[in-house]
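Data card: per-record layout.
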Amino acid sequence: MEIRKLQLIGGSSYMVSLPKSWIDLNSLKKGDELILNVDSNHIFIRPKKCSSILKGYIRIGSCDSGFLKHLMHSLYIQGFDEVTVEGKITPELTTKISDVARGLIGMEIIDAKSDRVTLKFIVDAELVEVLNRMSQIVSTMLQLLESGIKERKTKDLLDVAKLERDADRLYMLAVRQENRLMKELSCPSKWSDLKFVLGARVVVKHLEDLADILYNFAFKASVSPPGFSEFVPLLKELKIVFEKAFSAYMEGDAELAEEVITSAEHLQKMSSGELFCASRQIKSIGEVAFNKAVRESGSEGL
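The structure for this 302-residue chain is written out next.
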């Protein structure tokens, strides 16, 4: 651990120097851009420039559309920036490739010829931004479930399915960003950032599982909303505890995380089926948040 003093420059701006060893390790020079991931307690800094553009190739033979989709998904989540599909490219095949790309956030066809189709990743979303958006989706799903059942709004329950599809797409984007960061953070000097990525990987999986669970619950509720009215108070409480869990994780708040764990355990005793599973996922996020807070506090204490 290094301690450096915050300096005031120009009367209104603050500056902290970066270790020369880190600058040399990343081959940085004056004028290079840095990316800052900021939350209320921490700032994670990494170079903006990537080491290289990752390119992948798919040779089309007799593979069906399912196999093509599997290959493209695999290349996407591994962090490839450009994918080229080679072979006899028919208009029908181009349409199939376009349909697959539509489910991969940021992946677009940029060239289509009779012998090849090239896709490129054109979005530069940060992992923290994807996590935030996924948490917003889960929170909105809980809100729609509550209003859909309480006010008998079938549309709200159907909208949960749309959000679940968005959560699936964002999950793939998050895994892609995690894999990209893992490649960049492989050296010992970046192990603290590496721990953040590993923790984020666990949380993003819990968020994706929560979206799936709430989708299944919404499907059952859409068949008979009046019969699910008894779950409205529980859904309201789940939303409150979930939002606290995510805040505890992002802010590194051990006390709030402990409160979440206790509340989630209580909700588990009150629920069954999908809502029991949702409570368990929320508790797991609380546990990740607690461990993150303890790790980050280090010798300074809670």
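Known properties of this structure: The chain has a mean pLDDT of 84. The first strand starts at residue 7 and ends at 9.

See the next section for split statistics.
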